[in-house]
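Help wanted!
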Amino acid sequence: MTSSTDADPGDLPTFAHVLAAADRLKGHAVLTPLLESSAINKRLGFRLLVKAEPLQRTGSFKFRGAFNRLVQLDEAARKRGVVAFSSGNHAQGVAAAAEMLGMPATIVMPADAPAIKLANTRGYGATVVTYDRHTEDREAITARIAEAQGATIVRPYDEREIMAGQGTAGLEIIEQAAARGITIDAMAANSSGGGLIAGCALAFAARSPATRLYCAEPAGFDDHARSLVAGTRLRNVAGAYSICDALLGAIPGQLTFEINRRHLAGGLVASDTEAKRAMAVAFNDLKLVIEPGGAIALAAALEGRFPGNPRTIAVIASGGNVDAAVFREALAA
Amino acid sequence: MTSSTDADPGDLPTFAHVLAAADRLKGHAVLTPLLESSAINKRLGFRLLVKAEPLQRTGSFKFRGAFNRLVQLDEAARKRGVVAFSSGNHAQGVAAAAEMLGMPATIVMPADAPAIKLANTRGYGATVVTYDRHTEDREAITARIAEAQGATIVRPYDEREIMAGQGTAGLEIIEQAAARGITIDAMAANSSGGGLIAGCALAFAARSPATRLYCAEPAGFDDHARSLVAGTRLRNVAGAYSICDALLGAIPGQLTFEINRRHLAGGLVASDTEAKRAMAVAFNDLKLVIEPGGAIALAAALEGRFPGNPRTIAVIASGGNVDAAVFREALAA
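Answered by r_m:
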């Protein structure tokens, strides 16, 4: 048994799954603030809302999906534990959720992941197994560990309950904006596998259907943007480089793309330089620490890249797990 | 007329004033999150809650008092506008509140205030008048402007409605902790004039009387700590230096000290080096940008300086308006 019995990865989530996830996360996840800066709004000429997921447990939205998935495992599965592969944020989300639920976790991480992500994952009590991104197959390593330990594999995005959990961030945005009387014209979330924007799309389709939704990706890794245009999943060209370590997925997820191609208006792209500029803006005007891969949707908004001049834009700052050296460099740029 | 008619600065605030301020601030101030990091808690061996006032409008708690004061001015006083002196955070608070309420604001600021604080104050539409901290008297300059324009002087701490406004941060801490079933054993807030901890003390005395309360100050500027021991207001020795530009007040406020000497258990002190270390911890584990003078209470907690080994400590990170160069230096330390 390498996967749990109560969640068939072949199932697509619905809005009902997002609502159920929100109930499960209540009191466990942080209700992160929807930040706004009058200085930013003045400069841009439109209203910008920033969902501050760096303030989420583990420093990224990934805790939402991980906890929603793990809390549904039965006692026997909990004892055997979980195994996941991740460049860092999913790793921390799974490790922290496992620790809270008292189950063992093994995380397969690239040896060159940011030091802060490796250290934090170990800090949550997980066993970290490193591999060489260029020569080794992380899925094969994960499968071997799952088989040896009878552990449940927790995929980073292509699972119903993972997507449903991430969608709670979108649900909160809608509720927080509504409480302030705000209508959101456009919304974007950073995309690697596409689970965050897919989950959010379910929430917006149900509760704010007029909002135009976008995924956001670093230049050179715009597989979602191109796939949405083509109507079929396209792979990134090998050999590209970006400092956005959280957004280097090779191809959109199978399940996430099924949702995203129905709901998204398109994909937005920003460069590493623009991501660093967005990190500096978040430092100055929001007092929020954002990692490069957490800042692409914000960068797209700051660079005026949303089509049709929307008057109110919401973006998710998806994570803040950045090494001090990289952050210092962004502030110096 | 240089002061409004509806708030006599000679009055001490009560808890009722804090409650009224909370009503006035609803929908105008940010309900800032009470952050927590399991990594920090593990390292410290006690539970630490951090009230994230850098996420407040204008990047510090000062907006609370300023808005609460300004919103009570009558139409005639609003037209004549307000004038304030401040090293930066009160300046921004008053400027932003004045802008929201459509009234002119003049702010008297030291010429060597952090560039970000000068720029932001102007960004909120205020007229900034700079002075030399070593040779000029800011109160005299402020009085001259008030007289010439008929503007209301908004003092940084020694006013009833300013203290009441700042106290809403403490009220929120109590409510946010209670919602999570948490009892707070000890609490500290950074003190320059002492308005923040005074307002908070009123809230804690009414709603969480068992919590032991402390002010927190940078080394060399521990006038509150020494005054509490002496039972009378003592001045800082001239010539001290600290990077905590927000906490360089010379002597406790007259009104704030009346409250603080009744309610505080004592004063905590941390060094500039410890403040920088606290800023780095907030970056790594909370993803929050804190300025040096906003990090002293946090530093005191991280350095284990609270007496009696409290099991749960709440501190206010009071501001995040720090220049990039200073922040980069803190991360490099």
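OP: Thanks! One thing I noticed: Chain B touches chain A through 35 residues (CB under 8 Å).
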